[in-house]
Amino acid sequence: MPTAKRLPSGSWRCQVYSHSIIKTDKNGNIVYDKDGKPKKKRIYESFTSDDTSRRGKIEAEAMANDFILNRKGKAQKRLSEGNMTLLEAIEKYIDQHRTTLSPTTIKDYETIKKNGFQDIMLLKLKDFDTDILQDAVNRESKRLSRKRTRNPKPIATKRLRNEYGLIRPVIKKYRKDIDFEEISLPKVPPRIPDLLPAETIFRIIRGTDLELAVSLAMWLSFTSSEIRGLTKSKSVNGDYITIREVLVDGPNGPVRKAIGKNDYRNRRHRIPPYIKQLIENIDGDILVPFKSWELSHKWTQLLKKNGLPHMTFHDLRHVNASVMALLRIPDKYAQERGGWKSDKIMKKVYQQTFSDERERVDDVIDQYFEDKIQHECNTKK
């Protein structure tokens, strides 16, 4: 029960905890604790009675008790009126969906909460409108990426869209009146990686600690999380290898999951003899004992060492899809092997053409038109 205290003036004052707000420094930046969570400042309500007698003490305490009894209803009213900040609403959204979101998604949401759209994170939901949102999107598109310390560039368009993909549903939950269709986002430019031929990749990975991981990605079209989740005891059965678990990065470290991104990912492949021999040479149960960033870093360094253009580790799946297209593998089987939900995704995102093969096609087309031009010139003579 709250207890009133006498002030120097003789009046009585009783203080009761009301709510907490996000702490900021003198520059208006959010202050975080060692766990990466925003620090909060407790706010108290004061109830005062000018009656200096004992009756004034009872009156101040009665007002405080009345506040406590009605605080829950008032808090709900504050929420319904949009008095939450965007940051508070995002935290609530994450907590409400923690059991249904993947660890990787939660980790990304926590990163967005800390780095993205910082200029509107402390804005109350009731104060948002389309102009404020559009201006925030425009400013965020120019925010420099923290991944690069040298010659920093603005964050990627895809990253901006991922950030907006979190704040939009959060705001929309409380602000049904905002027309989100009016908000324009920059289009993601198509990314067409310059893929290396399979023979070049095999040449540089031979005898390295990446040989198995790269082969699994390029040959069997496994993703990084799928490769890291492979074990001899659960994944390998005779001449076949099956995706039974994936290893993803969560907010508190790696998390082993029993299912992949979707049902299409939990697939089974026959193990080629080349890969089977590599698996047999592995000591222990885990086939590829690398962290996600280690796979990416080692692959990038291997390319640099051999003077080859940059390709991401994930681009090895693009190599696989493009090889299947080159070999004219029917879409049904190519889609099944790659674990793609639809052949549209496979064709639009993953299938590219190799530089050498593209040049050969260009030569054929150029030769056709050059022959026609030459024929026309000879006719006029």
List keywords for this structure.
3-stranded antiparallel beta sheet, elongated, 11% strand, 381 residues, single chain, mainly alpha, 8 strands
How would you concisely characterize the structure shown here?
The protein has 381 residues and is mostly helical. It has helices spanning 54-80, 86-96, 103-115, 130-140, 157-174, 198-205, 211-220, 224-228, 232-235, 273-280, 292-305, 315-326, 331-338, 343-350, 355-380, and strands at 5-6, 12-22, 40-49, 236-237, 240-242, 246-250, 253-257, 268-270.
Kindly describe this structure.
The termini are far apart. The mean pLDDT is 84. The strands form three sheets. This protein has a three-stranded antiparallel beta sheet with strand order 1-2-3. A three-stranded antiparallel beta sheet has the order 4-5-8. It is elongated and about 110 Å long. The protein contains 15 helices and eight strands. Strand 4 and strand 5 form a beta hairpin. Helix 2 crosses helix 5, helix 6 packs antiparallel against helix 7 and helix 7 crosses helix 12. The chain is mostly helical and 381 residues long. Keywords: DNA recombination. One of its GO terms (molecular function) is DNA binding. One of its GO terms (biological process) is DNA integration.
